[in-house]
Amino acid sequence: MHPERIWIIGAGRFGRLAAHRLGALWGREKLLIVDRDEMALQGLAAEGYRVAPCDGVDFLIRNLPPSGGPAWIVPALPRHLAYEWLRRKLGTRVIPGPAEVPEALLAGIPVVIHGQEGAVYVSVARHRCPDDCPEPQTHCTVTGRPRPVEIGPFLERQHHPGWTLVVIRSRQLAPGVGGYPPQDLREAVAQSAGGGPCLVATACRCHGVLHALTIRPHADPEPSAGTLTDGRPAAKSQQSSTDRRARVAEQVDARDLKSG
What are the beta bridge partners of residue 203? Predict the structure, then answer.
């Protein structure tokens, strides 16, 4: 596999790890690292990586074209990137308020942890995994035993009456580094077009993160500028800072988008 471009969303510990491992495999010129923390990007820029100072979700909303784009997106944020992107993309179709992941969908998964803001983290591992796990196809790297279940395929097989299940598979691009093609995000929008309760999951063989949301069956007008998806006005100073970062990101990545 020789990817044309890879967008790494996040420049923290795992974003830097992804940059170094993927850069060693395919060259730094193929990578773009996105983070709103400009200080976090300075070291990577000094090493010769291309960087874009912008919030990761904002960057995808503004820069991911209807077709084409990067070969891979590597989520490296302490947030569920696919879920947040889908919420933003659907706009006012998302009904405000909490939505819970049905417990029935989690039965059979060894480790289930309920996090903040409705996040559910699932895993087959009861131990700390090495950050360079090669994700063997048949067994766990640490124990050497077969996995009791493969999280991604397991979630794809699930069905819950009245629910739409959107499962984005994280594919290993380098040891400890996973990503997905942008078409998977576009297909998530199509899958959720019918409205109703929707489960959004990103998962590899061993781990996953899940969120639930409720979608209106018919599209409403997109919220106006300066308005959040729940109808609250956005703070002007925050909006201005985000816009500035996004404009910089668009300029930095212009040649990627033109060639996509």
Answer: 169, 208
Is residue 61 assigned to a domain?
yes
At 142-183, the pLDDT tens digits run: 998 999 999 999 999 999 999 999 999 999 999 999 999 999
Burial of 10 (0-12, 13-18, 19+ CB in 10 A): buried
State the pTM of this model: 0.83
Residue 93 vs residues 173, 195, 197, 210: alpha-carbon distances, Å: 34, 8, 12, 19
Residue with tokens 């209807």: 66
Reported in sequence order, the residue ranges of 11-119 that DSSP labels E, i.e. its strands, are: 31-35, 50-53, 72-75, 111-114
Q: What is the bridge-based pairing of β-strands 207-215 and 196-203?
A: antiparallel
pLDDT tens readout for residues 118-137: 999 999 999 999 889 988 88
Distance (Å, rounded) from C-alpha 227 to C-alpha 16? 33
> Quick one: the chain helix, strand, coil %, rounded to 5?
35, 25, 40
Residue 242: domain span: 1-78+232-260
Within a domain: 36: yes
Is the CB of residue 76 less than 8 Å from the CB of residue 174?
Answer: no
Asked whether residue 138 falls in the same domain as residue 84, the answer is: yes
Helix residue ranges per DSSP H, 27-181:
38-46, 56-63, 81-90, 151-157
CA atoms within 13 A on the CB side of 90: 29
Burial-class residue 223 by CB neighbours within 10 Å (0-12, 13-18, 19+). middle
Structure tokens at 168: 């984005």
Classify residue 204 by burial, with Cβ atoms within 10 Å: 0-12, 13-18, 19+. Answer: middle
Strand partners, 215: 94, 196
